[in-house]
Specification:
CATH superfamily of the largest domain: Gcn5-related N-acetyltransferase (GNAT)
Radius of gyration: 21 Å
CATH class of the largest domain: Alpha Beta
CATH topology of the largest domain: Aminopeptidase
CATH architecture of the largest domain: 3-Layer(aba) Sandwich
Number of helices: 12
Structural class: alpha+beta
Number of strands: 14
Strand content: 25-35%
Distance between the termini: 28 Å
Length: 376
C-alpha cells in the first residue's frame, strides 16, 4: 500500500501521533518515553507560550490505515530573525525503517516550509532549546535521559540517503561522581571568591526561590546561551511558564547559585535525580500509577544516577573559575545523597569552555547527537 501523510488536526490524530513513539520503542531498554501530557501540551497553541513567536504543524504518515511515522514542522520566527535564517525546523520525528515513509514525511515538512517562504530545513529541533533536540548518531546501546531523544540506528542512515548533511553535533558525557572536589578546583574556588567577591546561596523553599530568583535564573539563561547554536531567547510568558512548571520539581540541595557582592545572580546549576527508569515504568502516563514512579525518583533518590540539567554562568565570568564554586557546593552533597554517576546531557562539540569543566573528573564521552540540514 502507498503512504499518505496528513496534518494532525483532531484529538484522535494527536493521540495517534503521540502513541506512535510508544509503539515503535515498546520493550526497548534504552528509549525513555515522553509523558503523553507533555507532548500534547507542547504542541497545543493554547498551552505553549512559544506559539507567541512560532508556528507549527504535526504530521502523521499512514499505510493501510496504520500510523508508520510522525514529524512536526516548526518555524521559530524569533530564532530566524536572530540568526538571519529562513529555516523550517523538523522535530518529534519517528518512522519505521522504510524509505517511502521517510521520504513522504520529510517532503511534507519541506513543502510546508517552502509555502511559508523558508529556504532550508534543519533538525531535529523543537520550538526552543528546552525541547528535545539532536538525532542520536552514537550511543544506541545507552539509556536515554528524560530530556533527550532516543532513536534507532537506521534514522541517520535515512537522513544521509536523502541528502541531509551535518550542521552541528552535541556530545554527552557520563561522569563518575567523586566524593569531594579535586584539590585544584578547591584552590581555584578560593581564589575566585576572594578576587571577585562571589558566594554561593541556597534555598530551602521552592516558593521563595521562585519569588526571589525565578526570573533571574531564566534571564541569566538567555544571556549565557545567547550565542549557542539556534538559541532563541525565552519570552517573559515562557519564563513564567517554566518557573511554574519546573522549579517545584527541583531538589534544592542540588541547586547552588553564585551571587556577587551586590547579590546579583551570576551563575547557577540545576541537578536532578535521573528519571529515565521512572519514565520507562510510567510508559508515558502519570495516571493511574505513573506518578508514583516519578515521586519515588524525585523524593527518595532511589537511583545512583543524576542528570546535570542546566549550568549557566554570566558571559563576563565564563572562563574565570566561577563554575568551580558551583561544583564545590554540589559534589559532596551529590555523593552524600547516593549518586555515583551523572549525565551531562548534550553539549555542543565546539563548546570547549563547557567540556573543559570535566577535565578533572573521570568521564566517558558515550553519546553523540546531530542536527541535520538541507536546502529546500
Amino acid at each position: 500500500m502507498s503512504v499518505s501523510v496528513r496534518p494532525v488536526t483532531t484529538k484522535k490524530e494527536m493521540k495517534q501521533f503521540i502513541c506512535f513513539n510508544y509503539e515503535l520503542y515498546k520493550g526497548s531498554p534504552y528509549a525513555v518515553p515522553d509523558l503523553y501530557s507533555d507532548v500534547r501540551d507542547t504542541l497545543d497553541p493554547n498551552k505553549n507560550a512559544a506559539f507567541e513567536f512560532c508556528e507549527a504543524q504535526p504530521f502523521i504518515a499512514l499505510r493501510d490505515g496504520k500510523v508508520v511515522g510522525r514529524i512536526v514542522a516548526v518555524i521559530n520566527k524569533k530564532a530566524n530573525q536572530a540568526w538571519d535564517k529562513k529555516s523550517v525546523r523538523f522535530g518529534w520525528v519517528d518512522f519505521i525503517d522504510d524509505a517511502e515513509v521517510v521520504d513522504a514525511l520529510f517532503a511534507a515538512v519541506e513543502e510546508w516550509g517552502r509555502e511559508r517562504g523558508m529556504d532550508e530545513i534543519h533538525g531535529p529541533l523543537g520550538f526552543t532549546d528546552f525541547d528535545p533536540e539532536g538525532m542520536l548518531v552514537e550511543g544506541f546501546d545507552r539509556m536515554s535521559t528524560m530530556v533527550t531523544i532516543y532513536n534507532h540506528a537506521y534514522y541517520p542512515e535515512h537522513m544521509e540517503r536523502m541528502g541531509y548533511t551535518k550542521d552541528t553535533d552535541w556530545v554527552e558525557y557520563m561522569l563518575t561522581a567523586p566524593q569531594q572536589l579535586p584539590e585544584r578546583h578547591t584552590r581555584i574556588a578560593r581564589i575566585v571568591k576572594e578576587k571577585f567577591g562571589l558566594r554561593v546561596v541556597k534555598y530551602t523553599s521552592h516558593k521563595k526561590l521562585a519569588r526571589e530568583r525565578g526570573q533571574a535564573i531564566f534571564e541569566l539563561l538567555n544571556e549565557a546561551y545567547a550565542n549557542l547554536y539556534g538559541y532563541s531567547a525565552l519570552s517573559p510568558k515562557q519564563i513564567q511558564q517554566y518557573i511554574a512548571t519546573y522549579l517545584p520539581l527541583l531538589d534544592l540541595r542540588l541547586v547552588p547559585m553564585v551571587v556577587d557582592k551586590d547579590d546579583n545572580l551570576i551563575g547557577f546549576a540545576l541537578v536532578l535525580p535521573s528519571l529515565a527508569k521512572a519514565f520507562q515504568k510510567a510508559n508515558g502516563r502519570l495516571f493511574p500509577f505513573g506518578w508514583w514512579h516519578l515521586i519515588k525518583a524525585l523524593k527518595w533518590n532511589n537511583t545512583k544516577m543524576s542528570e546535570m540539567m542546566l549550568i549557566a554562568v554570566k558571559p563576563e565570568y565564563q572562563g574565570k573559575g566561577a563554575v568551580t564554586l558551583l561544583f564545590e557546593d554540589i559534589i559532596p552533597i551529590h555523593y552524600q545523597l547516593g549518586y555515583r554517576y551523572s549525565e551531562t546531557n548534550p553539549e555542543l562539540e565546539t563548546n570547549t569552555k563547557v567540556q573543559a569543566q570535566w577535565d578533572y573528573f573521570e568521564r566517558e564521552n558515550h553519546k553523540r547527537r546531530r542536527i541535520y540540514a538541507k536546502k529546500i
